[in-house]
Amino acid sequence: MLPSFRRNRYRVCMNMDVSPLQSVLLIGQLFLWTCDTRAQQVFRSEPRNLTVRMGTTAVLRCEVLRASGTVQWVKDGLLLGPERSLPGFPRYSMIGNLRRGQYNLQIEDVQLDDDAIYNCQAGRSENSEPIISNLAWLNVLIPPSEPYFEMDTLQYWVAGRKYSVVCVAPDAKPEAEITLYKDGVELTGAESFTMSGSKDKLLNTRAQVTFTVPDAGYNDYECVLSTSASSYFGPGETRSQSWTILALECVCQSGNPRANLQWTKDGEVVLTTWEEDAVSHVSKSVLHLKIRPADNHAVLSCESVNLVSVAPQSTSRTLTVIFDPAKVNLVGSFVAIENDELNLNCFAASSNPPVDIRWWLGNRELNSTAVTLEAGENGGMTTLSNLTYRVSKQDNGMKLSCVAFNRGTKVSKTQNAEITVYYPPQKVWIEGPSEDIPLLAGTKVRLVCFSVGGNPPGNLHWFKNGRPVPMYHCNATNEAEKMVSAQIRLHVLFSAIAMKITANADQFYRGQTVTLECNSGSSNPKSNISWSLGTQRFQGVDQPHRKAEYGGFSVSSLLSLNVSSQLHNQRVICQSHSAELPEGAKTFFKLNVLYPPEFSLDQPTQIQVVEDDMAVIPLLVSANPEEVSCVWQHRRKNLVKERDVRFQWPNEFTLEIENVTRKEAGSYKIECTNEEGVSSTTILLDVLYAPSVKAEKDPVYVNLGATADLICVADANPIISDMFSWKWLGEEEVEMGEEIQQDESSLLTIHGVTRAHAGFYQCTANNGVATPGSTDVQLVVQFKPVIQKGPQWRKVASRGDGTAIAELACRAEGIPNVDFIWEKKQMLMDFQNPRYEEKTVREGSFYTSTIQVVNVSALLDYAVFTCTARNPLGDDKLDIQLVSTNHPDPPSSFGLVSVLYDSVTLEWIPGFDGGLPQKFRVRYNWDKSGRFLYMDVFPPGEATFTVTGLLPNTTYNFSINAINAIGESDYADNNAVLTITTMDLPEMSGPTEEVHSSDVMPTYLAVVFTVVFGVLLLLNSLGCFFGLKWRKNQGHKGGVEGTVPNGATKEEEGSIQSTVSNKYESREKINKAAQRTLLIDSGSETDSNLYEKYATEGPHYYYPTVDYRPPVSPPLPEEVHRPDRHSHEYEEVKDLAMYQDVPSSPLPPLPPFLDHRLPHQRNEWKPSAFPLLAPEQKAVNVRQAPKYSELPFELRGELKSPDEPTPAAAAQRGRPAQRLCHEAEWVSQQVWMRK
User: Average pLDDT for residues 602-608, to the nearest whole number?
Assistant: First the structure.
């Protein structure tokens, strides 16, 4: 389907009756469409089929180049929405880099509903047509549900007999594979088949195995599944059930014959066997039924019927199955804090009758809060009892029981749990010294914390609080979430607990003044501070004291020093002391600058090197201390010395890489370590290398008129702008389109692709490093088939006598593949018919379909065959007419190629050759002459020809027709005349007076020429008179209407034929370009020919070697002669007075450079070397052309209506007898003029 703008474009071409206003609107729409194609959006990547497991995450890719429309995802025909978060689909979202046009669909926690067909589409925009991607299938794998056995429960299993076991694996995708085991041994011979599952797309797999039961006893059977999605059960897992057997007896008395009995359960037949007692005339059937809970409320019926029963008689019993709950569950938390409430649930599965639930705590029964009964499985009832109970610490460790009692089975099921109650400790206290006693720091004091009670026992934790007086706390806690604590306070004398020196800068330099501050931590009593450096003592500036932790005081002092290199590594000591304390505290500050390794400002951060050269990476680092070790890393891997011989370290701080490659490019991280820390730097090694180019997609397919995007990607370093260039590798020049570079890729966009754009394009990348790289990308232009439709393709000729074979060829060009459909008379052809055979041959983008028609029949096969060539982009048709061999069709498009002062080059398109070889004949004359010259084209099949020997600045009229063995065609283009004027004579250098004087004919020669010419005219008139008289006599002797009798010999036929065709048998070829004969005509007839022969002219012609036999009787003037369409009789001219002398030709004399005679010959006159009529030549009878009905069948024309002329009549129309007298005189004049 063409876009709307394109459809309008074709509508403008095909509909020529639109109004001017409509034309303007359509042309404007075409202009907009043309502009739109310059920004057509296309897919760079499209979604593909994906298979994932249920519960995982799936991502379908979609990347749009030049996205301008709204991009959406479609799931099974449903649009998901344009927003990337996809509201309404919580597990769906669009992810990816929006700047790169990525609209990838991400589906989290994939479910069965996600198993669908997806596609990505970009909507229409102002600049682009809509596009739709390929369809992609998301296949979700789902493991099967829990398997189960289908057992034959209608009969006992007897040792030695064969039984069947069926295992079902439900709801899997794809289907599961089942393996059956008996007592751990795999059972072979199982047959599996699949059925529809509970949901669409899910499958149930059933596996059945038949085996012989061994000796009596119990057997375990296992069903093991495996799928491509997961597996559920393995060997070792056992499923077993026990059953209760119920025996029911059905007795039917009387009836003759005795009744047939069968048992049904809920309408399904379960037993069809019975026993008959002939004595008592009783039928009896015993049903042994394994009772299951599922049989509750089942209806068992015994039906009896015999041959005379109208309807079966039956009796029914409804089963009431009393069964216990399969399980009793106690749900809730059994741990609580004192005085909190426990909320517990006791759930009993389906039972009949419903159970009574009672609660017990130890020996004490508790009252349940609420009891809920609901319908359960198998017609039973489920029971749910709720209990709310506030616990106390006395309940700790007691057993809580839920008892479910079934009044029907008198069976109780009990579920027990132990209650745990948490409660805090009852009391906490500390034993230690009184706070009135001073204690020196360092004195050992024993503090003991006691805790009593609590479940679980309390955990004791000591805490110290120093504000304002140190106090010690003992906290007792447990899971009861209640803390009980005790505390004690001590009076402690202590020196400064901490000393710290701080500086005004982290690093020190020579000549810099450093201010140090010494802070003394909390002390009791207040301390005094002093400074020392080596043996020197300094007095600092004391700062006001302040209260500190633990009830002490904190003091500080400032000291200023001018540091130098001599003070490197020297210690500045700060000491605090008090008279009440035997000792104080001190600390020091080291003045040397301690710093981790540092890298110089001259350290290079990037090093460029060309591939295969040596790369040198220096490291400029300093540190204090100076012992530095460095670790080199590349791509997070440590570089180990001597691992690669190309990596060398001349010293610790230089790396050399020989023959460096692009693999070594990237960031090198160097971590240098000393005692103070680690410093690292990153050096980028940039390895420059020449581009290597590859095509992102090759070949690139694009429809005719669309936008083609050719993308090539380069692996190169560096990536520079304008590094890409595109080159067309074809011979003819085409418009290259728009080139855009996007980082490492280049995009060549060609809008409005034509067939001339198809071929190879070369993408070259040059970044200035070594040799440029290039790659070739093929552009394949797809277009609808175009059938060759020249005249030679529209008709095929063959004999229709049932013995000939005709081939109809249809040649089309198109991409993609072209198929052909043939129709005959608008009906599809049946190639099962042995008379028709079709074959198709492909040569590149050309396809030729040929039909061979065997035993061609005029009645059956002379028809119009229609060839239709088609591909996905469109089709084309050609009508081919199968006709009989006939005269050729006229040429067409007769036109001028070039013109000179003495020659004209003409061209035309050959028409249908009538099924026989054809040749072409050019007819021409100058505008002041009513007679024509004829020239046969050589070689015969050429479609261009040069007519030479023309006069300068002269107007000529040209026509052309075609001739074959049957006849000739009309003149080209409906007998049109091509009027051409030759160019002026080019100027000649040198004096011309002598030439003109030499060209002037002497007077005596003129007199001689006049006398001779008069004698020739007299002889010509006599010859015409006697010839016509003789021809009349022969015509009366030859039969009625001048026809040749049927008994004429072949020689006569041959002589007559020679009068209507030209034969060139001369073997002396003088001019290889053309074969020329001058045929003098009176106006329109071309079959009566006269050859003009030049004895002294230059080498321009072929000389005919056959005898020339002109017809005898001249025709009437063209204005009077109108031959009948269906007859070819030549009317005789009785009035000889019409033959008059022809006046001298008005043509000027030949220029000197066209006169090829020698100078001494130019003044000599010679008669024509060609005899007008040899004495030995005799006039012959002109046979009347045969009628159409007399022609052989194979030479007849195609079937026509009665109003159309027959081919034979058309071949002979307009051919009156030649005017021999006039032509002889005219030839004489021409010979005289050229001499």
Answer: 91
Range 889-912 average pLDDT: 93
Residue type, 101: G
Token readout for 1128 is 């070819």
8 A C-beta contact, residue 591 and residue 569: yes
| Dihedral sign (CA 252, 257, 263, 268) | negative
Burial class (CB in 10 A: 0-12, 13-18, 19+), 268: exposed
- Residues 69-86: b if buried by 16+ CB within 10 A, e if exposed: bebbbbbeeeebbeeeeb
Round to whole Å and give the CA distance between 17 and 10.
14
Residue 229 to residue 145: CA distance in whole angstroms: 12
DSSP 183-225: TTEEPP--EEEEEE-SSTT-EEEEEEEEEE--SSS---EEEEE
Kindly state the tokens that stand for 782.
Answer: 């797809």
pLDDT surpasses 80 at 32: no
pLDDT value, residue 156:
59
Instruction: Give this prediction's pTM.
Output: 0.39
**Residues whose CB falls within 8 Å of the CB of residue 695, separated by 6 or more in sequence, listed in order:** 710, 711, 712, 713, 763, 775, 776, 777
User: Is residue 1138 a contact partner of residue 1117, using CB atoms and an 8 Å limit?
Assistant: yes
Q: What is the pLDDT of residues 546-559, one digit of tens each?
A: 888 877 889 999 99
Which tens digit of pLDDT belongs to each residue from 239-266? 333 346 778 888 887 777 888 888 998 8
For residue 105, the model assigns a pLDDT of 95
Q: Which amino acid is at 673?
A: T
Query: Which of the pair, 491 or 718, is modelled with greater confidence?
Result: 718
Question: Token pair of 1040, please?
Answer: 């009625």
Nearest to 1016, CA basis, from 1162, 1178, 1221: 1221
In this structure, the dihedral spanned by the alpha carbons of residues 947, 951, 954 and 955, taken in order and rounded to 10 degrees, is -20
Contact of 1110 with 1059, CB cutoff 8 Å: yes
CA separation for the pair 111, 91 (Å, rounded): 10
* Best-predicted range by mean pLDDT (243-247, 287-291, 1228-1232): 287-291
Cα angle at 100 between 94 and 102, to 5 degrees? 20
| Single-letter amino acid, residue 769 | V
Helix (H) or strand (E) holding 1018: helix 1003-1037
Asked if 983 and 900 touch (Cβ cutoff 8 Å), the reply is yes
Say which residues have a Cβ less than 8 Å from residue 657's Cβ, sequence separation at least 6.
614, 615, 617, 646, 647, 648, 664, 685
Q: Which two tokens stand for residue 675?
A: 């005692």
Q: Provide mean pLDDT across the span 35-42.
A: 64
Whats the size of the chain, residue-wise? 1235
Residue 389 DSSP SS3 = strand
Which range of 277-281, 759-763, 1197-1201 scores highest in mean pLDDT? It is 759-763
pLDDT, average across residues 689-703: 92
Strands (E), 884-963: 892-899, 904-909, 919-926, 933-936, 944-947, 955-963
Least Cα distance to 151 among 82, 70, 194, 209 occurs for 209
The β-bridge partners of 741 are 746
pLDDT over 90 (residue 64)? yes
* DSSP class of 948: -
State the Cα–Cα distance between residues 1155 and 1150, nearest whole angstrom: 6
pLDDT of 1120 above 60: no
- 1096 close to 1166: Cβ distance less than 8 angstroms: yes
Whole-number Å distance between alpha carbons of 295 and 287:
14
Strand partners, 681: 670
Q: How far apart are CA 335 and CA 423, in angstroms?
A: 11
What are the strands, taking DSSP E only, across 362-508? 364-366, 370-375, 381-390, 399-406, 411-418, 420-422, 427-431, 438-440, 448-452, 459-465, 471-477, 484-489, 491-493, 499-503
Beta-carbon contacts of residue 1036 (< 8 Å; ≥ 6 apart): none
Give 189-217 pLDDT, tens digit per residue.
788 888 888 888 899 898 888 877 765 44
Give the amino acid at 310: V
